[in-house]
Write a structure and sequence with these properties.
Its cofactor is Fe(2+). By secondary structure, the chain is an alpha+beta fold. The chain has a single domain, classed as Jelly Rolls. It contains ten helices and 13 strands. It is globular and about 55 Å long. The protein starts with a helix and ends in a 22-residue tail after the last helix. The structure holds 2-oxoglutaric acid and fe (ii) ion (FE2). The site of 2-oxoglutaric acid has 13 residues, from β6, β8, β9, β12 and β13. 2-oxoglutaric acid binds next to β6, β8, β9, β12 and β13.
Length: 381
């Protein structure tokens, strides 16, 4: 292929990744999801194989405190051609996803964490996103058109080292404590996947409404790429596209359901990926059944998982009937590593900014891109 052909393909959005991204993003008529790998169903795909996890570094009690089944019962998969990529099909204990979903919707958007609303609202106005939204949500049943609540306007939240969407860097000057319970969950999942000592230092929560998408990108801002990137999803199902080391490589499509965990490590740590769409919920079944389950036994005081009260769950389940929350957890620095000096950082930022702008979906109105704006990695909603 000539360079001219390649650049014309990019201009017209015709490379394999863009083509598939647009295919799944289309709403009318809805796309055919036949080719999308569904890890929740018996696998009949040559690309997929069972992945053996290592349950020995963890005891059952430890994982159950975080709301996870014993590691030996997890259904973990790998994909041929993607070494280091691990997909764990909902390893959560019945009822425990409610706790994690509530943390994502009620607690993690709270200060000192940073969210998209902070970009154009005064700190006092984004102090109580949850409380401010409750009244509006309760009025919604009245039939009158109510304005969008802050919860519905939430697009992203950052934790720990707060990712700077403009410079595409983390900085030691912009750090707040990483939530301890999410650190514990991540540490345990990473250990089961062969990464003991994982240190959760940065988190990005993405809030997807039914028409949201996330553009093609690579997560390369972390300083140490030998540590895995973990991803947890709650709520509606998404189509996830996992591409190659080159932006235009043809991706593999898979469903990410509520409770699923993805680990991108080794050679897969720096692969291009995207979320072209949220899959419409089946008629009459707006909430995935794993989110309607309740805990089998009363949580103990030293458990991470706690009961979610009825009022809080009412709000969460209303929101999740039309939304998906994804949490990615990252270790930014290797052990003993420190941040490079600012000079080096700003140089690196320029390079990645340029490549990102070239590679994004021009003409896709508002698709959520890795070049983050106030509204997220540029999304549709
Ligand atoms: O929502 C997802 O599944 C992916 C999120 C993601 O790629 C990111 O936050 O970098
Ligand atoms: Fe990502």
């Amino acid at each position: 292929m000539t360079a001219k052909m390649a650049s014309s393909m990019v201009e017209h959005g015709e490379d394999a990744f863009r083509k598939l991204f647009k295919f799944y993003k289309r709403r009318n008529p809805p796309p055919d999801f036949n080719e999308v790998i569904n890890f929740a169903k018996p696998i009949n795909n040559d690309k997929v194989f069972h992945y053996e996890l290592n349950s020995s570094p963890l005891n059952e009690e430890e994982v159950s405190k975080a709301g996870l089944q014993p590691v030996k019962d997890w259904r973990a998969f790998a994909l041929r051609g993607y070494p280091g990529f691990i997909f764990i099909s909902n390893p959560f204990l019945p009822g425990s996803q409610q706790y994690w979903a509530k943390q994502c919707l009620k607690n993690y958007p709270q200060k000192p964490n940073v969210c998209n609303l902070d970009m154009h609202m005064a700190p006092a106005e984004t102090e109580n996103i949850w409380e401010q939204s409750i009244d509006g949500i309760q009025r919604k049943g009245s039939g009158k058109r109510e304005p969008k609540t802050l919860l519905e306007k939430l697009r992203w939240v950052t934790l720990g080292y707060h990712y700077d969407w403009n410079s595409k860097t983390y900085s030691p000057d912009h750090f707040t404590p990483f939530p301890t319970e999410l650190h514990s969950l991540s540490h345990r999942v990473a250990a089961a996947c062969g990464f003991p000592g994982f240190n959760a230092e940065a988190g990005i929560l993405n809030y997807y409404r039914s028409d949201s998408s996330l553009g093609i990108h690579v997560d390369e801002s972390e300083i140490d790429h030998t540590r895995p990137l973990l991803s947890f999803s709650f709520g509606q199902t998404a189509v996830f596209l996992l591409g190659g080391a080159k932006r235009e490589d043809r991706p593999t499509a898979m469903f990410m359901h509520s409770g699923d965990i993805m680990v991108m490590s080794g050679p897969s740590r720096l692969l291009y990926h995207a979320v072209p769409c949220i899959v419409p919920a089946p008629a009459g079944n707006p909430l995935p059944s794993c989110l309607s389950q309740t805990l089998k036994s009363e949580p103990q005081n030293d458990d991470i998982i706690q009961n979610v009260n009825e009022g809080d769950w009412k709000v969460c389940s209303w929101y999740l009937q039309t939304s998906r929350v994804n949490v990615t957890v990252r270790q930014v620095l290797g052990s003993g590593q420190t941040f490079p000096n600012t000079e080096t950082l700003s140089g690196a930022a320029h390079t990645s900014m340029d490549s990102c702008q070239k590679s994004d979906e021009e003409g896709e109105t508002g698709t959520h891109k890795k070049r983050k704006t106030e509204s997220g990695y540029e999304r549709d909603s």
